[in-house]
Each structure stands twice: as structure tokens, then as C-alpha cells.
Amino acid sequence: MKKQTKKQLNKISKNLDYFFNLATKQDIKSGSNWYQDANNITKDISSKYDVNPYKVASVISCLSPRNRWEQNLKDAAKVCEAFKFGLHPEDIKVCTFHTNKYKAFNILAGNLEITLNSLKTFNFVQNIAYLNDDYLTVDIWHIRACLKEYRSIKNANIGKVAYQQIKELTIKKAEELNLTGFQYQAILWLSCQNYYNNLNN
Q1: Is 44 contained in some domain?
Q2: Which structural domain range is residue 169 located in?
């Protein structure tokens, strides 16, 4: 996705309204609490294994591909525990790719850091670690909500300008609803998935 025109941004705004209006009471409740819950778990792992919360959130992010959220958190705790006791990546198993497991260990060792070069991941870590509302996770489901399109969107790779446009628009719309950007995004994440899952069943 490249830089969006004013007309395109207006359409995205209407699409986000569409999916927010589809959200159930449970979607709104769960979405509003999702990042706070993730932040609490991050702090628990941080305290238990004496790891900086930002690093814990980075490990969670590294271990997320093809991994259920509940298992993702278990794997993150397992990696932090293994690192604390001097174990190596090959000593444990996690439910994602081997390369991501090695990245997680490198993050804990201080050899790797998630930067703005990875826009989605960097924003995700900021949201989880610090509940920082200056950032927004624009993942594949948020893009699907923005464009009201499912099948043609296979990944969350968008340009830096488009990312900034969508982030600013989403945070502004959230503020109008007295929500943080990440709360609004999480609600849309649930609503959009429910919508397309129902269509495909």
C-alpha cells in the first residue's frame, strides 16, 4: 500500500466505522482490555525472570508468527526462563519458527533490537510494553478492516507514509470514541476476524 489520497482515506475511515459498528459488546470489552492484559503479563514475566519489559515484549513479538496468543505467552516465558538459567535456543522447543526462537534469544542477549525499520513490530512492542498510545499496530487484520478486503491481502507490508497515515487516522477516530488507538485497533481486530470467518463458513 502506497500513500493514500484524501478520497482513499475517507473510504478507509468509513470502513473502520463499518467494522466498529459490527463489534459485539464482548468484542468491545475484550478489545478494550487486550493490550492492558498483555502489558500485565509482560510485567509479570519481566519481574519473574528479571528482564526489561521492552525486551519481554520484543520476545513475545518474535515468537508470534503462526503461534496462538496463549501459546505465544507461554513460549515467551519459557525463553526468558531458559535465558536466565544459561540455556541455549536448541535446548528448548517453541511453537514457531526456529529462526524466530534464535532472534528472541539474541534480543535477550542484547545482540538484536526491534527498530522502526520493522514498523508493525516496533509499534506492537511499544503498545504492549508501555501502553504507549503514540503508536499503533497496523497488522494484516487492520489493513483488511481499512480496505474492507480479505482475499487479496496476504501480508501487512505497507509503505512508511501509508502506515503513518493509517496510524494517525485510526488514533484520531479512537479519540472521538474516548478510546486509545490500541483499544480501537484491538476491537476492530476482533470484529474484522468475526466478519470474515462468518463469511467463509
Answers
A1: yes
A2: 6-200
